[in-house]
Amino acid sequence: MAAQEKREVAPAPGAIRPASSPPRPHSSPSGPTTSPDLDASAVPDGGFEAWLVVAGSIVVLFYTWGIINSFGVFQTYYRTDLLRTSSSSDISWIGSLQGALPAMGGVFTGPLYDAGYFRGLIIVGNVLVVLGMFMTSLCTQYWQIILAQGVCVGVGCGIMFLPSAAVVSQWFAKRRGLALGVQSIGSPIAGILLPIMFGRLQPQIGFGWATRAIAFLMLALSVIPITSMKTRVPRAAKRRAFFDKSILTDLPFLLFVAQMFCTYLGMYVPFFYVQLYSVKMGISSTEFSPYLVTILNAGSIFGRVVPNYFADRFGPIQMLIFTTFASAVLIFSWIGIKNLPGLIVFCILYGFFSGGITSGTLAAMVPYVPNLERLGTRMGTFFFAMGVSVLIGTPIGGAILGNGNEASWKGLIAYGGATLLAGDVLLVVSFILHRKGEKGVDGVR
């Protein structure tokens, strides 16, 4: 009877539907980054164990993307001293390889994470990163540094980066954006500490021992993630394929992947080249120039937390659209900066908004995942595409830079801004199609 029928009450935006409700293909992009296949009451969303996992993930980000964000000091040292006969483009391949492998490795570590091998991945990744840094301290030739810092460190980062990020999503639902933002501050903290550490130690004790000091620091910190991080959700009942075929028919997700490919082509241009730019253009002394990388990463600390806090309120995709657009505008403004105060302000602001891109990427991707059991696999595919972008992005910039005259610097900067702007346009289109899909599903109910 009509009077006795129960009227379905629509959940609040972004809320997780109970198990008895038909699952939605995607969670709402306008609400918190939760997934429809988990019961909100079962997710701790805080507490000692949950934040302990975040603490371990902070350390992993410290010596994965943290060492990548610090590569500007290595780029400058290699270009002006150890590898002075190599071009800027050749040297940037070291940092690009180191930055690409953490993302590209996700296509393999994602399914392994889903299959329950989380702890093994964390241990093996830690060993390789520490070993790679110790081996880098012994290097004197380009090919040696490629193998040690590029491949060994990069592979180690690739093994543990995705699992360390994905496991946080098991412990948080409504506050997931904030947790992922806090987790990501490990990267800029390293970006602040390591350039200063290397810049102060290298002139006094040499490249070898300065690099070994960083390796010893990483060795000590590795105890934290190995002992504090654990999964909450049981391993998948059956092993999943390394590639989720449903991605091929999911146009909004494909566009989301395409926009991040474009964005990461140019996003790291300032991190790799701002220090060299300040020296070559006579804006800063060689003694102060490493602090520009530090300032970039200092701004990034706030950029990784503040936008993610608002993402939980206004939507992760919307916040990513805003931070990407702001970053593109800032890179274009870099063309007109000819003095140190202006360059410092640029580093602070760009660090903030690019930090919002880095920390907001995962939170913005979760609404595109129809089932959290496939989160690792979809993250793997997504990060593989992003890794290819990071791999080729800065070497392309180095090739544009060429001999480093003023026109070449303008070309490099324009390249960075244009790639971010193109990525933002694709993100807007992806968001619109995603919302239409959401409304279409609701209309069928």
Automatic annotation (TrEMBL):
<feature type="domain" description="Major facilitator superfamily (MFS) profile">
    <location>
        <begin position="50"/>
        <end position="436"/>
    </location>
</feature>
<keyword id="KW-1133">Transmembrane helix</keyword>
<feature type="transmembrane region" description="Helical">
    <location>
        <begin position="381"/>
        <end position="401"/>
    </location>
</feature>
<feature type="transmembrane region" description="Helical">
    <location>
        <begin position="142"/>
        <end position="166"/>
    </location>
</feature>
<feature type="transmembrane region" description="Helical">
    <location>
        <begin position="50"/>
        <end position="71"/>
    </location>
</feature>
<keyword id="KW-0472">Membrane</keyword>
<feature type="transmembrane region" description="Helical">
    <location>
        <begin position="204"/>
        <end position="226"/>
    </location>
</feature>
<dbReference type="InterPro" id="IPR036259">
    <property type="entry name" value="MFS_trans_sf"/>
</dbReference>
<feature type="transmembrane region" description="Helical">
    <location>
        <begin position="178"/>
        <end position="198"/>
    </location>
</feature>
<feature type="compositionally biased region" description="Low complexity">
    <location>
        <begin position="10"/>
        <end position="19"/>
    </location>
</feature>
<feature type="transmembrane region" description="Helical">
    <location>
        <begin position="117"/>
        <end position="136"/>
    </location>
</feature>
<dbReference type="GO" id="GO:0016020">
    <property type="term" value="C:membrane"/>
</dbReference>
<feature type="transmembrane region" description="Helical">
    <location>
        <begin position="319"/>
        <end position="337"/>
    </location>
</feature>
<dbReference type="InterPro" id="IPR011701">
    <property type="entry name" value="MFS"/>
</dbReference>
<dbReference type="Pfam" id="PF07690">
    <property type="entry name" value="MFS_1"/>
</dbReference>
<feature type="transmembrane region" description="Helical">
    <location>
        <begin position="413"/>
        <end position="433"/>
    </location>
</feature>
<feature type="transmembrane region" description="Helical">
    <location>
        <begin position="343"/>
        <end position="369"/>
    </location>
</feature>
<comment type="similarity">
    <text>Belongs to the major facilitator superfamily. Monocarboxylate porter (TC 2.A.1.13) family.</text>
</comment>
<protein>
    <recommendedName>
        <fullName>Major facilitator superfamily (MFS) profile domain-containing protein</fullName>
    </recommendedName>
</protein>
<feature type="region of interest" description="Disordered">
    <location>
        <begin position="1"/>
        <end position="39"/>
    </location>
</feature>
<feature type="transmembrane region" description="Helical">
    <location>
        <begin position="247"/>
        <end position="268"/>
    </location>
</feature>
<keyword id="KW-0812">Transmembrane</keyword>
<dbReference type="InterPro" id="IPR050327">
    <property type="entry name" value="Proton-linked_MCT"/>
</dbReference>
<feature type="compositionally biased region" description="Low complexity">
    <location>
        <begin position="27"/>
        <end position="36"/>
    </location>
</feature>
<dbReference type="InterPro" id="IPR020846">
    <property type="entry name" value="MFS_dom"/>
</dbReference>
<dbReference type="GO" id="GO:0022857">
    <property type="term" value="F:transmembrane transporter activity"/>
</dbReference>
